[in-house]
Amino acid sequence: MSAPPNVLTNWMHNYAMTTALFDPAIYAKRRATLLNKMQSGIAIIPAAAEVVRNGDAHYAYRFDSNLYYLTGFTEPEAALVLVAGQKDHSAAQAILFCREKNPEREIWDGHRFGPDAAREKFGFDAAYPIAQLDEKLIELMGDQPVLFHPLGASADWDARLIRLRAAVQEKSRSGICAPDEMHDVRRLLNEMRLFKDDHELAIMRRAAAISTAAHCRAMRFTRPDQFEYQVEAELLHEFCRHGARDPAYPSIVAGGGNACTLHYVGNDARLKDGDLLLIDAGGEFAGYASDITRTFPVNGRFSAAQKDVYEIVLAAQAAAISRASPGHHWNAPHEAALRVLAQGFIDLKLCHGTVD
Questions:
Q1: Together in a domain, 45 and 180
Q2: FRET pair for 229, CA 20 to 30 Å: which of 34, 106, 251, 308?
Q3: What single-letter DSSP state applies at residue 233?
């Protein structure tokens, strides 16, 4: 198989995206859409937390998908605040809170935009140091009827916003009202993110091309007596060398009976001649995931029984794809595949009865 198309370079250096992947206008349009759906109130979308692996080592940082979708900003210790303003949104604001510039820390951890550069680069109305977030939120939440937030995603953030709302409520004698309601902002964002724009589709296709190349590489590499983790290494190598720096999820490389464990991630067994190998793996490119599952013979040749079952599964996949189009119910592909599988297994006398 030919290599996937050239990938975008300079995507991410440590935490910070030094070259905007999209035109900032695309992110601004998404923020405007969310503000319109909010109608009124204030939304707070925080960055993902950094997670300690052990000692002073952290897991590789993965930005929050919703914050990235609305901003393109990938640093930790950040939050986006959207204020809907008047009914016509004439006074709507998009405000970023992020880490300040710190030359000493940047020697260790890499580039930080800082509030001024982040505002200019990403097109926010204002940007402030993350240390000022609580102070500014108490001010911004005043007289807002609704507070939007990813409720339940973080107990710390839920408690923090309840505390800040109480601080606003203490100003009631001065005529300042605290939000009466709290809504989960993901109900609005999830609907928005269902519909992909051209930029997203291009990135998703790139992620799929990279992952396809990785699966083909793994198939060419696989031989009896290798270990599952050696095949996994081929996948990860192909992901990374084309810019998908991380797998979208833990790779499943399951030989023989290990494939019967749905989320098998041990990947440490020796591959046996005559067995099948199931690989469920996909790379994440520029924040978008690919997800591919394939099963093939370890020795490169199907037995007669393996071939019979494989061809039924392949036909079921084709039936599902034929129903995966606008106008069909979301369950239609699943039902189409089930009918083909059921009939095929009946024909092989692995099952009894009729499809219906």
A1: yes
A2: 308
A3: H
pLDDT score recorded for residue 22: 59
Residue 19 belongs to a domain: no
Q: Which residue stretches of the chain have pLDDT < 50?
A: 1-20
Cα–Cα distance, 32 to 72 (Å, whole number): 15
Q: How far apart are CA 200 and CA 205, in angstroms?
A: 9
Residue 144 within any structural domain of the chain: yes
What are the angstrom distances between the C-alpha of 89 and each of 9, 45, 125, 143? 37, 19, 13, 15
Q: Which two tokens stand for residue 270?
A: 């020796």
Residues 238 and 141 in one domain: no
pLDDT of residue 91: 77
Residue span of the structural domain in which 313 resides: 303-356
Q: Is the same domain home to 252 and 140?
A: no
Whole-model pTM: value is: 0.89
* Residue count of the chain: 356
3 state SS of 154:
coil
Of 197, 192, 182, 220, the residue nearest 37 (C-alpha): 192
Give CA 287 to chain center in angstroms. 6
